[in-house]
# Entry
Amino acid sequence: MNNNIVELVRVWISYEPNVYVVEDASFNVTEGDFMALIGPNGGGKTTILRTIIGLIKPAKGTVRLFGKDIKSFNEWSWIGYVPQSIERRYAWFPLSVEEFMKLKSHSMSVSIDELYRMLEFVGLWNIKNKRISELSVGQFQRLYIAREIISFPKLLLLDEPMSSIDISFKKNLYDVLKDINENFGTTIIMSTHDVTAISTYVKKVVCVNKKVFHADNIEELLYGKALCKLYGYHVYGLNHNH
Amino acid sequence: MPMIEPLFQSFMQKAVIAGILIAIICPIIGAFIIIKRLTMIGDTVAHIVLAAFALSSLLKIINNIYLTYIIPLLATIIIFKLTKESRFSGEQALVIVLSFFAALTSIFISLGGRLNFEAVLFGSILFLSWRDIYLIFTITICITFMLLLRLRSFLLYVFDEDAFYLTGKKGELYELLLGISVSLVVVASVSLMGVLLVSAILTIPVLSSMQIARSFGKTLAISIVIAELAVVVGIFGSYYSGLAPGGLIVIILLIIFSSLMIIGKTGLRI
# Structure
């Protein structure tokens, strides 16, 4: 049985005619994967994530979600997405933390108790009536992640989700991601520069720098020359097994 | 009872009813267009209405209701489409459209169209008919009901389009409904507020309440209260002073805005 959640088949992506930011990318993400998408800035990680969920249409190639061509895929509520450097452009509007959480909850079966528990978990319950414009970038990032994981999506995409989150809370959030991945079967794709986290939490890695040129296991990535090749200089991962 | 006395006059009854309705629907629709960063849309649609007035005058169509509603309606839907698909930002595209319709107005007037400029540009309490009131009433009820019934979806659509897309809802439908709503509300408000001042009633109450409100719900509630206060005082002020209601309402709105901005700077939030 084909349990591919995401399939990219020879995908080319461009913003300008004939100028490709991603070339001939192919990889699969299977059910239960916790996959990291790594690569240098401008390498195409965000573009690939946005293409997977249909926010960008590829110039060539095929994207399949849950075995269906993306053009005929309709089950968008199965998917959670946390964008990169959470958009602060609209955070100036007086929307409260609680209202922000409820924005998507009408399309999910989430009770108010669950919503409050999630806010408590991400440390934002006591400021649930505060405006989101008054949150720090890290708090806003936590809020966004909380909103996307509360309904336990079947597929969760996170674009550099921990970039502004402090070290202590980062571990908690990684643990939650691991938990929903292992216990609720949520397939996770996360773009990141956090090589340490990759070695601890991630099951599979895809390297992108315009082209996908490495999609094997983590040991090979950490101890082989893949990182050096990807970034163009010496980069080594740390493996924490404890 | 000097406050009640004007209400025995038919034109004041119509102006007050229209004003109360406009002060409900304008801030509600204004909140969505402010978040969508299309604050100029009120001005742009008003200039389309002005061109429609000029055209109907040129064509000697006295009863121009279809022209004044349908031209802005179609144009607004096209504007929403253009702002999404063009490489310009929404506001930049609106300035181009506004200039185009201002130019058309000028051409229609040069060709022989005649307008009562004072009333058209700055509003009037004299020219509302009962048919206008029924239309404003229907527009207010329908749009308020639609927006409140789908409040979170509309809010998500204007606030975070990517997240909205992932709910599986049709963005095109919400875009169309918002475009139609903005157009109808602006056309309905133009008679009282005037072409040049109509966008003020859409935006200033919301921008004022944003200074002190903690949440979207409170922003809406406070902005409706502000708009009601300004409109009712403005209409009565216009009756007693003979000044254009649009101008008086905007001055009152700006006084409230300045006061709330000062209060907001103290950190007070409701």
